[in-house]
């Protein structure tokens, strides 16, 4: 087995749907192991360890998604991200605390979500090489350089305080506030095309399990510091507009 | 007469970007950062269109849309949000939103949507 590959376990009774899912990752660094029943996946996980992601059919045989997940959590302390595949979205799915619920046929947006989810580990471990990119701001500015300067000033005066508040909320276990701050600052990172920071915000705000928050919050703080440092290196004149948070 | 557009957005950087795009296109803008202030603005001023985020402090964007559609049924509302869940997007349309644009927005998409909304209103 190639250990550098991300391991995904798919529980899907429909063989065509299995093939469709596998095809999406055929040329990627993702190894999809598919099972037609939850029992097969349970045995495999017991023998080979916890994968990076479990994609589980809601009506998985013989236990169904809820019981399969409960079994995995109770018996082997399963903690990896889980995506449930349902025939249609219904209120009964609310009780499943999973990363995302998707429906068949798999949409490009869902596959993209999974790819980004699997990249998360790399996001946490590798701070960005290019902290930001001004292409989007330049497109918005349409030749108005003052706008770019103004936008960066706003970033440096508003976002650090919100990151600080996010970290503080996390330390005080106010998880709802953590999610709200993450959601609120995500567009600022998108404007600087800092995909890693934006992805971290998105995951913290909408998908993270409580046990994943410590590493995600730490990674976001580090990523933000990298961006802020890079901006101030490239635009020292912005220092005048930056408020001191200390 | 320049059309007046109310922008309800709590991210200051995004709000500034919307203002720039709209003012370059000849619109007059007013920005507020939360739902409660947005409702106050709508009560006391005339606007031709509203651009609104969904997750806002104090009163959510959904509540502002609901209130606006009761008080000003013909006022076009464009939702600009980073939430892309299908059921939420559908819900905003059911509540009467004219369009739903996801962040990060392209100025051309936003302006096209505004033009369509204002044309339809006229």
From TrEMBL, chain A:
<dbReference type="GO" id="GO:0000160">
    <property type="term" value="P:phosphorelay signal transduction system"/>
</dbReference>
<dbReference type="GO" id="GO:0004672">
    <property type="term" value="F:protein kinase activity"/>
</dbReference>
<dbReference type="InterPro" id="IPR036641">
    <property type="entry name" value="HPT_dom_sf"/>
</dbReference>
<dbReference type="InterPro" id="IPR011006">
    <property type="entry name" value="CheY-like_superfamily"/>
</dbReference>
<dbReference type="InterPro" id="IPR008207">
    <property type="entry name" value="Sig_transdc_His_kin_Hpt_dom"/>
</dbReference>
<keyword id="KW-0597">Phosphoprotein</keyword>
<feature type="modified residue" description="Phosphohistidine">
    <location>
        <position position="183"/>
    </location>
</feature>
<protein>
    <submittedName>
        <fullName>HPt (Histidine-containing phosphotransfer) domain-containing protein</fullName>
    </submittedName>
</protein>
<dbReference type="Pfam" id="PF01627">
    <property type="entry name" value="Hpt"/>
</dbReference>
<feature type="domain" description="HPt">
    <location>
        <begin position="144"/>
        <end position="242"/>
    </location>
</feature>
From TrEMBL, chain B:
<dbReference type="InterPro" id="IPR011006">
    <property type="entry name" value="CheY-like_superfamily"/>
</dbReference>
<dbReference type="Pfam" id="PF00072">
    <property type="entry name" value="Response_reg"/>
</dbReference>
<feature type="domain" description="Response regulatory">
    <location>
        <begin position="4"/>
        <end position="118"/>
    </location>
</feature>
<keyword id="KW-0597">Phosphoprotein</keyword>
<dbReference type="GO" id="GO:0000160">
    <property type="term" value="P:phosphorelay signal transduction system"/>
</dbReference>
<feature type="modified residue" description="4-aspartylphosphate">
    <location>
        <position position="53"/>
    </location>
</feature>
<protein>
    <submittedName>
        <fullName>Response regulator receiver domain-containing protein</fullName>
    </submittedName>
</protein>
<dbReference type="InterPro" id="IPR050595">
    <property type="entry name" value="Bact_response_regulator"/>
</dbReference>
<dbReference type="InterPro" id="IPR001789">
    <property type="entry name" value="Sig_transdc_resp-reg_receiver"/>
</dbReference>
